[in-house]
């Protein structure tokens, strides 16, 4: 096997690259591009439907898991569990150094161009860097927890240590999920983390409760740790031969500078996104304690059910965004996102209305103490609708080369969200936290939409889809 060749690349030009017709029509291009836009769009919608089914199943299992844990623990201990898991998830994201998100940016294009040496190099570098960073962070977290305990500054280090040990499993899971997404294997990408992991945690927690007669925060984290590593092993097995041509390639090309530069930018973007999605829970826990954090987390996780629609569509469409832009097919990309805008918004509106109507019984599932979170839940639903109405703005920018502009917008919105959430929690309690989160999400989507229109010349919102329908009906009337 020849030694990898390191390329110092400066190819960060975000403009679309026009490809020859022979390449565009070759049998190795992604299925959407082979079938033509209309048939490909239908294929993409079907694939988004598959993702949505998995997301719905996963959402149901995840939601049931949260209800189960809230019932078996209590509001305070459930708040501690949620707090630790949120932090572990955030640190796991950081451990990836942005490479998981960069996978969806680079791998579809490399496969489209049959650039197997770069594809092979990318897979090797990202896997080794992610696990090395995650393991280092985990060991450091355990050491810090034990050190603080030895100095008398921390009562029990167990929860923090268990959270630290979760980091490599979650980081690896994120990486393998993005590998599968880049390979258009949406079932492989999402079934293990969204369906299998919550099912294993729920089963383990229930068994532990039946055997011991109670469930502690540490026991819940123990079960989560075992389930997360089991899922990690399964994902490795399912994705290790996903890019077969890359594994048979003898040469390896490493574009470390470009991959790391894009990866760090995407890491910042992903981190800011997580802050926007989770900072309200962290702020509530810091200002009002673990009990209120647990109560607010129930509202947040209930409102998050709406986001599974846009997540499903983005998961299926993201590789095609990158491929269409790389081929210079801007009009086709506009047509695609216009179709997807309705696929995103109308189901999101229906789900939001259903959750609002059933908000009291849904929160009662967690326990009698959680009903007070209803006003916060209604505010959070408004933020989710704004997110759905804007369309796939974030992915469009990141996957077409405008990741730096997207990251700046994310960062400013995250800072605004933190400030608004702190002020809101301090003055209006749980409703204030929800208002801060909603306003931050609105600022983010507004700024990203403006960037997409200005930089790409694409209009991805539901308003464009409605306008397109109106123009189509007028055209039909004129023809008659």
Explain what the structure shows.
- The protein is an all-alpha fold.
- It has one domain (23-474).
- The protein has helices spanning 21-24, 31-35, 37-72, 75-95, 99-112, 116-150, 158-182, 186-212, 217-239, 244-248, 256-288, 290-303, 308-326, 330-357, 359-364, 374-390, 393-398, 403-428, 430-456, 462-479, and strands at 5-6, 253-254.
- The chain has a two-stranded parallel ribbon with strand order 1-2.
- It starts with a strand and ends with a helix.
Record the SSE blueprint.
Blueprint (H helix, E strand, L loop, with lengths): L4 E2 L14 H4 L6 H5 L1 H36 L2 H21 L3 H14 L3 H35 L7 H25 L3 H27 L4 H23 L4 H5 L4 E2 L1 H33 L1 H14 L4 H19 L3 H28 L1 H6 L9 H17 L2 H6 L4 H26 L1 H27 L5 H18 L1
Parallel strand pairs: 1-2
Helix pairs in contact: 3-8, 3-12, 3-13, 4-7, 4-9, 4-11, 4-12, 5-6, 5-7, 5-11, 5-13, 6-7, 7-8, 7-9, 8-9, 11-12, 11-18, 11-19, 12-16, 13-14, 14-16, 14-20, 16-19, 18-19
Number of helices: 20
Q: Order of strands in the sheet with the most strands?
A: 1-2
Helix and strand element order: EHHHHHHHHHHEHHHHHHHHHH
Distance N to C terminus: 67 Å
What proportion strand? Answer: under 5%
